[in-house]
Amino acid sequence: MKRPGIMIKDVFKRLTMKPVTSKYPAEKSPAEPGYRGKMEFYVDKCISCGMCAKDCPSFACVMEEIDGKKRPVFYLDKCMFCAQCEESCPKDAIKMTTEYELAHLAGNPQIVK
Ligand code: SF4
Ligand code: SF4
Hints:
By secondary structure, the chain is of the alpha+beta class. Helices cover 19% and strands 19% of the residues.
């Protein structure tokens, strides 16, 4: 080691620096504007047209009959968060949110319905 003084100076400098990492999950950072996370579905606006399911490129959105009404169900383990369903819906019944905490146990996918 030719110049140990440089290294020691750097060590002390970094000891007094604030951490560059966040304390997630204790401190949750907000998502950037425009981030596409988990969608919200407003069943009262839905007219059961099926456009969202027809246009979904990853078959994550499928029409199912629930309480006697056909409506979309979103399987988040297949979703790529492209927001095509939101774009295709003529009634604004689907809204992408900035929710990004979508971890789940294997075999137990998150479903939005
Ligand atoms: S965000 Fe894209 S992939 Fe996910 S359900 Fe909507 S259309 Fe399908
Ligand atoms: S496109 Fe909109 S209105 Fe049509 S089924 Fe999907 S959520 Fe309902």
